[in-house]
């Protein structure tokens, strides 16, 4: 009976070292192979040129290297690139490269589909099929880094976990991927350049604070009024704003890190003065930044971007209350790569 080979990248460096010792080889062979797998990101054992032929064959007999494949690549007229990425089991997720004059940002996915059901989001329609493994998250970043060097002549500078999926519902794997991304044996990126964006899972925000993570936190808030938030993000009924706020207070007390809120203003949903007043009240307990994001319709017309007056009102009231605010233009709309639009349409 044929036994299924293990994915070698599921092993830690220590496990790899132990494996070589168990085969009668030196532990440092594990370090060499680890480097090929992560900092050099090779796709085959054949490419590990400083490893003997016999050892490569032994690895081939015992393991597979499950690599993602960029199945389709689309480039927007504004330079944004969207990858449809095929996983080893044939499922597809998307990731996006967003270049600006000062930075190049990768927006990566953490789940196939999503555990949550935000009404305005295309990914929510896919439902959650499975969590991504750490290597599948890492590979998306490597692919985008290569594209950034190719198309923009510079390496990737920032990462946001804002693609498909709720990263805190796949917390352990996201953390392992970030460990690899930030380690010198991986991409050596500073954790300060990584933002994990959550729709707000209180228990996990507290866990992040307890784990003393070094990356930044962003919360997709969209409303600071429970009825409104529940109508657009139904899981808010389970995790109401009072719980979210308590978790964020805990986060701030422990980390002293500013909290960023992602916020879309929709016509007729959250575009009134009472909405912005509630937002001010919600985020005043800690230094905060609000990103007002332009909305990208996802074909059913239920959600529409609010008019300029409403956006101006938000901006003025927030600034008057000493809350930093930015208005973020959406990118890659022509290839459905903008926020909330990732739904494997390129397939
Ligand atoms: S907005 Fe984020 S958390 Fe909400 S359904 Fe979409 S992918 Fe999931």
Helical amount among residues, as a percent range? Answer: 25-40%
Overall geometric form: elongated
Total helical segments = 10
Could you describe the largest sheet, including whether it forms a barrel? 10 strands, mixed
Helix/strand structural class? alpha/beta
Fold and architecture overview:
The structure is a single chain. Helix content is 33%, strand content 18%. The two termini are 36 Å apart. Strands 3-4-5-6-9-10-11-12-13-14 form a 10-stranded mixed β-sheet, with helices on one face. The protein has a two-stranded parallel ribbon with strand order 1-2. Strands 7-8 form a two-stranded antiparallel ribbon. The radius of gyration is 22 Å and the shape is elongated. The mean pLDDT is 91. The chain has 10 helices and 14 strands. With 347 residues, the protein is α/β, with parallel strands linked by helices. Bound molecules: iron/sulfur cluster. Iron/sulfur cluster binds next to loops.
Keywords:
347 residues; alpha/beta; 14 strands; binds iron/sulfur cluster
Please sum up the structure shown.
By secondary structure, the chain is of the alpha/beta class. It is built from ten helices and 14 strands.
Topology, please?
Layout: E1 6-7, H1 13-22, H2 28-37, H3 53-62, E2 63-64, E3 69-75, E4 81-86, E5 92-99, E6 104-107, E7 111-112, E8 130-131, H4 134-152, E9 158-161, H5 171-182, E10 194-198, H6 202-210, E11 216-220, H7 226-232, H8 241-255, E12 259-263, H9 273-283, E13 288-293, H10 308-320, E14 324-328
Parallel strand pairs: 1-2, 6-9, 9-10, 10-11, 11-12, 12-13, 13-14
Antiparallel strand pairs: 3-4, 4-5, 5-6, 7-8
